[in-house]
Batch of 3 targets.
Target 1
Amino acid sequence: MCGIVAYLGKKPAQPILIEGLKRLEYRGYDSAGVGLMNNGVIKITKSSGRISVLEELLEPINQAEVLGIGHTRWATHGEPNTINAHPHLDYTGKIAVVHNGIIENYSTLKTWLISEGCKFSSQTDTEVISNLIGYLYAGHNEKGTPTTGQNRFEWAVQRALNELVGTYGLAIVCADFPDMLIGAKKGSPLILGLGENEYIIASDASAIVEHTTQAIYMADNEMVICTSKGFHTKTIDNVEIRKDLKQIEFSLDAIELNGFQHYMLKEICEQPKALNMCLGGRLDHRDGRIVLGGLDKYWREITRAKRIIINACGTAWHAGLVGEFLLENLARINTETEYASEFRYRNPIIDDGTVVIAVSQSGETADTLAAVEQAKERGAIVLGIVNVVGSTIARTTDAGVYLRVGPEIGVASTKAFTAQVAVLAMLAIELGRRKHLGHDVAKFYIDELAKIPAKIEKVLTQSEQIKEIAAATCERENWLFLGRGFNYPVALEGALKLKEISYIHAEGLPAAEMKHGPIALINKGMPAVFIATKCSQYEKIIGNIEEVRARGGRTIVVATEGDENIGKYADFLITVPPAPEELQPLLTVVPLQILAYHAAVLRGHDVDKPRNLAKSVTVE
Ligand code: F6R
């Protein structure tokens, strides 16, 4: 949520900021702005709407403007208009701030700053940061002054940070120091890219990788001070720290559209390759075992677990639910999947035998992170299944498994879902093998898992046919998605995909639940998507399809290739190759992703920037 980027170097900052903001636009896109240092004056340009709107307002590139900060917003406090867009200048016009996060005590601080004579012009929480820094910088420092030799701007930032309650990823400049850029982090991600004679601070690596692959991942309560002479890092308590330099692991190519119209479509189509990367080196076919190096130190505890609690949100929660069924079925471990936002505020029972698993693409989701922290406080072993390397959840958990599918930029999660399910399947198979499954059964699932990428490739060839189905049905405003067993979470995921990008109301349900109420919704022509592959509940779901057809519903059926019987129940038929039922979600979700994609495009929506949404929900 919200993307920030800042540059200090020898090149003109403006094009670097704009390019960076475009790369970060998936984090939020309701307004944007940049602040450029020009001869001791901070020149702010902002607008509501997309980066493209901002670009039109910018003055021609000025070679002398080599320091700047930029922001693309997902509104929390204050509507998405130009005034509320970042950067926010303080009341003296000397301090400018871009911010990702939420300041929880902003109202108290604002009231106090107003009483001290500070002027506010926006409704944002961020303006208290610039005004507080400006207030302290101007000399109204009731609690001490900079220590000898300490730069006053740096001191004022550090003092202000100590007053803030909430979360922030910040980039800050001061008009009196045209050679200084400060970044700070608490609860929202912040990376410092180190180029040749240049620094780029950004919310994520996608805004940096074009310039350098050398980066420092900032941790909470840390700040970085960059000047043309060098940089130093310290805690907000003024303790100097040394940070390790890390390599950004993906290339620019991974974040380009590469000829696709949208990132979502690119990522759907990438799934065979992505899953091969995810499974690569982890399937030991000969010995019938799974190799997950990240868990090496914890296998004993996980194998002995009496209970596993999976914590996640949204699509990752749906993957977690498939994981629950896999872990129960293959490993015979009692497993529950929790919405992290609920778990964190309950009083969950976590005892010695409980292992907690957090599933998150971004590794930054605020609720999932809070659930991880809560579980750790209560003494649980906490594992992470995360995509973004070095993300907060990856660093906060005791151990984990990376998805290894490369950056996911489309706001609607696709390849992360299949990879999350694949990792949970590997975990379940390996735990099962260690407990009771036996070599042959484990090997069977491992061999079947290895066949999934090629099978997804086959599903993808039906894209045009699925587009026709979307064209015939996408004008309807209410849909049902129904599945049973392992395909029930896929029904939830199919409904979520359709909702978030096409704004069609869709409900995902276990098919048998329909009779307990939702069947009342069915009217003539209502699209009902059934996942009716060959599985242990096949006959049952055929019965559910009949119930819908009898009431005039129009059925879109995802079935197993070669099923001669199913055609008569389907107004529209999509097939997937056969697979063991435990692994079917990896296949059956793909046509539903494609269906949602085409429905949204046909309805004229910007698939990669759906209304009201942003990738990586770093606020509660
Ligand atoms: C839906 C979607 C969201 C995320 C959810 C969790 O397409 O992307 O529902 O799955 O916000 O995000 P992560 O996995 O980053 O924790």
Target 2
Amino acid sequence: MTEATGYPDLDALRARLGQIAELDADGVERERVAVLGRKQGALTALFKTLPSLSPEERGPFGAALNRVKAEFEAALDARTAALAAGAAQAGERIDLTMPGRERWLGAEHPVTKVTREIVDIFRSLGFAVATGPEAETEWLNFFALNFPPNHPALDLHDTLYLDVGDRPAGDDDPEREHGRILLRTHTSPVQIRVMQAGPPPYRVVIPGMVYRADPFDPSHAPAFAQIEALAVDEGIGMVDLKATLTAFAHRFFSPTTPVRFRPSYFPFTEPSAELDVECQICHGSGCPACKQTGWMEILGCGMVHPKVLENAGVDSEKYSGWAFGMGPARVAMNRYQLPDIRLLYGGDMRLLSRLGGEAS
Ligand code: PHE
């Protein structure tokens, strides 16, 4: 505090400054009104006397008033801050029984987790991971895989083409002979890419996104994940396919999970099959998720068609192999008992945090 002002009224007022440090929160407010209040404030009253003073008196007295005003403001603010700090320290205003703020816990997406587990199992069986582009040529997505040119999968209704129009005359784009560019409809074109990159043997597992012109419904999505695998060597037969896939299913689900192979058709495998495992929801007794069959289809597979080997530059007299393509979303839906594939899209935190414990 500075020395006396020389004005008795002001000095009397300043005597109150010393008590401010003892006041409680209500006392601080009362003192603020009593000294600085617009209507009743003691200091305000002294300000109001200024116009009645002579110009010579007015200047010094006004300056003294302003200094004292600043002193009160500083003292009152300091006490308010000290009270708040003290209250926080003493825990007076903190309700320790109040629940804490919940934080969102990150978790691996169910499809990502299932994909990682599946890829890990194949890695432990000696498979390497390979990937390919999502924008693919018509040649690699279809024709190298032995699809006939009139196959319905090529239809605009099923395949999302990135450039539908004819290429301009005289176009010397090196991709020209490879047909139109499309969003790959399966991961199978990566089989060809792997085989073109070097000589056999091949043992690869290929995770990736694929696209089809399907509308969203409970069991379809226009963009979904696949995991492909390809094994090519001398003397590989159907028994290798069945043994590997059975071993995989027993590792991924359980050592006693029943599996079955059903005959099927794909242009790029011959013979072809579908692998079913016992429904993980009803364990075989039949439920809506497995349409009362007790089985769930998890992948398509087969022996690589000799024409596909030849299209990729592999001698089909010397080498043979098998391939499969699997939908990890299907597997995740069965494992986590999800009734609708759309739950896996859009990042709904309620689903992801419900699975968080398991999926992390
Ligand atoms: N590419 C097939 C599909 O998308 C799956 C498959 C892959 C089938 C490899 C056989 C061999 O449905």
Target 3
Amino acid sequence: MKLSQLFTKTLREAPTDEEAINAKLLVRSGFVFKNSAGIYSFLPLGWRVLNKIADIIREEMNAIGGQELFMPALVEKKYMEPTGRWDLDVGYYVNEKRKAQNEKQEQFVLGWSHEEVLTTIATKFISSYKDLPFSAYQIQTKFRHEARAKSGLLRGREFMMKDLYSFHVSEEDLSQYYEKVAKAYHKIFERCGLKSIYTLAGGGVFTDKFTHEFQILSDIGEDTVYICDKCEYAENEEIAKIKNGDRCPNCNGKIEEKKSIEVGNIFNQGTKYSEALDLQFTGENGHKKPVVMGAYGIGLGRVMGTVVEVHHDDRGIIWPENIAPFKVHLIVLDGHNKEADKVYDDLIKNGVEVLYDDREDRTPGEKFADADLIGCPIRLVVSKKTLEKDGVEIKKRNSKELNIAKIADIKKQL
Ligand code: ATP
Ligand code: MG
């Protein structure tokens, strides 16, 4: 991608209506646009990052047997009423046809979670123990009435979520799958450059049972966790039996209080939804039983915002390579566009993702500042100085070290 063609531009100043670092940096660098409080557009650079996160999630969900599907955002009242969740103050209600409708009562809610929709779908296909287990997921926009939408991508009123649901004959079978998902989640966050802490938590509006959250330690986090300094056993303060200074119930290490961001959440839902929506199966003995369910969520935008909170410096974002919008940020100086064009074309031919600052109306200082702000992992510079050595300057975003590589060797050094 050539920067001269990219329709977005970096902003000189941080936006004044944002408090959180992730929002300030992502708006300034042209990754996202704030449409309203808690509602963002993903611009070309930001959309690339979000899609990379989505691809990582897909790979790991597919690897544990998750089947991808896509459900509607408009959820009719009849789905939510049987579980008592129609009246919860979480969603935005929508009228079916404002003018034609005599009664003003809303018939739809913008989907904020899809247990009811998928459970209803499953009643059409699942009838025997032979049909179980199975799991299905989607990556889709969710809508939630969030009162405090002020943390940028961390808490949106509209946001992208991966929601996986699993269906089992028994609690034991669910437990085994739950462990698999937990492992896949740790992998997903690690691949996105985040170290996740497996944390015991309450169930909110989803289940009466204990759940597990994947927390990323960060001072901007809204959550407080008590975590062992040795084995990393952790509990969310909402349910915690341990407190600061206690001994760890697992390993006798020391418990510390930390702020954190919940990027993922997994739930044992038992038979709450299957009973309410009549999803049953006939067991080997011929008896009918409600299906046992689990649900597992990850907020994609929240992951992206968290990565920025964790990986930045005073000059900009430092993207982990797996989710960087581009691997390489190529800068041309001193009007050597012909030589730099060739480097660009060669890298593209070799399958390297390159953002190429070919703009002729920018100073070197502006180009370097933009490269640091946007935060691609590797910066290459083609200039008079480097060409005298028949080379290109290489610098990693997370290091100060500068090296010159021969043009013919660039690919090897990336
Ligand atoms: P929170 O306690 O932060 O409100 P939640 O318990 O409501 O989250 P879930 O319904 O379990 O979250 O959603 C699954 C995942 O979706 C969360 O772990 C988080 O990553 C993401 N998520 C939830 N609410 C938001 C939001 N308002 N904005 C962005 N991501 C969100
Ligand atoms: Mg919530």
